[in-house]
Each structure stands twice: as C-alpha cells, then as structure tokens.
C-alpha cells in the first residue's frame, strides 16, 4: 500500500499546485498570486512588447488590456486568436477575442481564455484491494483555468477621453477533485493628446475577485494529506486583491519612409503586500514594464520589450538584477494581421523561451 500512497501523494501535490491556493482550517487564504493565469497576457503583439499595452491598445485585445481601448474598434466584428504551449507542450494557453463597434462612440467585446494541463494520469486506483498493480485502472484528468470577459467601452464628452469596464467570470478545475467559480470587475481609462501622447489606467479586480472553491477528496487522499503533515483542504474563498496599471505612450513620426517609433511604459501596482519587484514595500509593490514598437505604413512592425525586472539572490548571498527580454514581429495585409513573439512567459531564469503566434482580422 506504500506504493499507492506515493501515487496519491504525487496527485495531491499536483492538485495543490493547480488549485491556486491552500485553505487552512479557519478558512483563510493565501494573499498572493491568485488567478495568475489572467496576468499572462493575450496577443503576440503585447507579449513582444513585454506587455506594455495599457495606454496604446485600441483593438479587439482591449477587452483584456484596457476596455476603454474598444472605442478604437471600427469594424462590425473584429476577431483575435492565439494559441501557445509551454513546458515542452505540457501546458496549453488559448485565447479568442471578439469586438463589435456599436456606433462612433461605443463598442463591446468578449474574450475567452484557457490555460490548462490535459491528460494527467490519475493513479489513485492503480492498486486494487488485494494489493495488485493494474495499469488498466489508470485514468486521465484535466487541470485547467478558464476566464470569460465581457467588456464595454465608450468615448466621453471630453475630446480624447474614453472609459470602459469588464465583467469577469472565472472557472478553475482540477479533475473531479476541486473546482471553483469566481467573479470580478475591471475598469479602464484612456486619454489621447494631439494624437501623439497616450495615457492609460487599468484597475483590475477593483472590488476584489472571489473564487469559491469546492474540494472532493476521497478517504485515501485525505489520509495522504494527514500522514504528510498537510491540512485537508476545505471549501472556502480565494481572494484576488486589486491591481492598478498606469501607462504612458508617445508616438514619434520620424518623417522618413512613413516610419513611426512608439515607446510605452507601464507600472503595475499590486496591493497584496511585498512582491519580488523592482519597487516594493510591505503594502504595495510596483513592477515597471517598457515596450517599443517600430512600424512602417501600418503594414510591418518590429517590437521589443522588457519586463519581470527583479533582484535574484545568488549562491554567495549576493543579489543580481535580472529582467526578461522579449522581441516580436507583426505583418498586416488586407486587414489580416499576423503577430509573432519570442518570449519567456512568466519566468526569465533557466526555462526555455516560448514562441507565440496570434492572428487578428475584421469584418466591415
């Protein structure tokens, strides 16, 4: 039975990692890194710029980056698609976005995001009651996170000023062992000045986002939790604290061959305590992001960006300043845009860089 308990221990560890938070007996929750799959980003354009998009975004991806940018959508329907795979294809990240222009002042949008690991072996029934190993008893399950975003953007009476809001529905599931539903609200603002300066603000989870978790663990798995010194997870709430992103963008027309240079800087301010960011305190942490796009006639664009700037401790207890570099390329032809990014999602250490491709097109 020790072999079976080892398999149960592996499965419970996987469940712990993918369920997002450990719940204690008093119902308290981990204060950081909740619903982090919604912080990865959408669209290869943004990922190539290090996710510096809040001020200048004005297309279908505004549903995610800043709903105020939906006012830049001019088509009856814009569509955006993205698929990427991480950890040698183990984890898959998929996104689809839709946007519709209602009139000259307003637009609506929808986005669906999935980040999941499929075909995870469930070995809890590997050994039968007589102690025999039977590989036919192995089944497969999926651990996945889903986000559904519904957005609205509108231009206000002040020239260059737009606002927007997003309602989020979140579903997270680890096989039949754990599942949760959550709801949250985002709000965004954009202001353009002389078609050269662009400013943006994005408040995510402005009322805090609550995920209600339900665990379904059998007696054998509960025994593994107890024997390994872990508390048995109980149904409860996981809280995502508010996050504010402030952004500024400047568009330069260099006056040669219709080439434009557009840098943007974002500052993500988190409110869940000290994080390993460039600027941090016991209350808030600030994570700066810098992106640059060089475009030619709205047809070809080359991009680069830097994010995840942080100090990493070395073996000799010294610290080194590290950052994540990103590059990208975009091509637009007859209303169809193909974007590519070469980036390391979420980590800039020894992990391999990732190739991300996204497609965008519209119907007038």
Q: Could you name the key traits of this structure?
A:
mainly beta; 4 helices; 18 strands
Describe the overall structure.
- By secondary structure, this protein is mainly beta.
- It is 10% helix and 52% strand.
- The chain contains four helices and 18 strands.
- A hairpin with a 2-residue loop joins β16 and β17.
- α1 packs across α4.
- The radius of gyration is 22 Å and the shape is globular.
Low-confidence stretches: 3-31
- Count of discrete alpha- or pi-helical segments spanning 4 or more residues: 4
Reported for the largest beta sheet, the result is: 14 strands, antiparallel, barrel
Helical content stands at: under 10%
Radius of gyration: 22 Å
Distance between the termini: 64 Å
Report strand %.
over 45%
The overall average pLDDT, rounded, is: 84
Please count the beta strands (DSSP E, at least 2 residues each): 18
How are the strands of the largest sheet arranged?
A: 1-2-3-4-5-6-7-10-12-14-15-16-17-18
Q: What's the SSE blueprint?
A:
Blueprint: H1 2-19, H2 44-48, H3 62-65, E1 77-86, E2 91-101, E3 106-122, E4 139-155, E5 161-174, E6 178-193, E7 197-204, E8 209-215, H4 219-227, E9 236-240, E10 243-250, E11 252-253, E12 259-270, E13 279-280, E14 285-296, E15 300-313, E16 319-333, E17 336-343, E18 354-363
Antiparallel strand pairs: 1-2, 1-18, 2-3, 3-4, 4-5, 5-6, 6-7, 6-8, 7-10, 8-9, 10-12, 11-12, 12-14, 13-14, 14-15, 15-16, 16-17, 17-18
């Amino acid at each position: 039975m020790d072999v079976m308990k080892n398999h149960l221990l592996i499965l419970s560890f996987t469940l712990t990692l993918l369920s997002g938070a450990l719940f204690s007996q008093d119902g308290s929750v981990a204060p950081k890194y909740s619903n982090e799959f919604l912080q990865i980003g959408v669209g290869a354009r943004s990922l190539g710029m290090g996710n510096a998009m809040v001020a200048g975004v004005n297309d279908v991806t505004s549903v995610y980056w800043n709903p105020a940018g939906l006012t830049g959508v001019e088509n009856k329907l814009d569509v955006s698609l993205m698929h990427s795979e991480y950890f040698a294809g183990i984890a898959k990240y998929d996104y689809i976005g839709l946007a519709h222009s209602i009139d000259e002042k307003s637009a609506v949008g929808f986005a669906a995001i999935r980040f999941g690991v499929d075909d995870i072996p469930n070995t809890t029934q590997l050994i039968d009651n007589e102690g025999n190993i039977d590989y036919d008893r192995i089944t497969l399950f999926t651990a996945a996170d889903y986000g559904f975003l519904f957005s609205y953007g509108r231009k206000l009476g002040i020239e260059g000023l737009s606002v927007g809001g997003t309602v989020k529905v979140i579903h997270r599931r680890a096989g039949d062992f754990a599942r949760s539903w959550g709801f949250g609200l985002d709000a965004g603002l954009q202001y353009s000045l002389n078609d050269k300066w662009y400013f943006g603000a994005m408040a995510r989870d402005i009322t805090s986002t609550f995920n209600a978790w339900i665990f379904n663990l059998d007696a054998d798995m509960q025994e593994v939790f107890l024997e390994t010194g872990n508390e048995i997870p109980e149904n409860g709430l996981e809280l995502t604290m508010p996050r504010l992103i402030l952004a500024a963008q400047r568009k330069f027309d260099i006056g040669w061959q219709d080439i434009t240079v557009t840098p943007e800087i974002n500052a993500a301010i988190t409110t869940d305590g000290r994080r390993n960011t460039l600027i941090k305190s016991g209350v808030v942490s600030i994570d700066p992001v810098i992106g640059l796009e060089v475009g030619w006639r709205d047809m070809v664009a080359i991009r680069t960006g830097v994010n995840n700037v942080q100090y990493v401790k070395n073996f000799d207890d010294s610290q080194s300043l590290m950052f994540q570099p990103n590059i990208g390329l975009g091509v637009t032809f007859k209303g169809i845009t193909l974007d590519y990014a070469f980036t390391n999602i979420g980590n800039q250490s020894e992990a391999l860089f990732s190739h991300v491709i996204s497609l965008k097109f519209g119907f007038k």
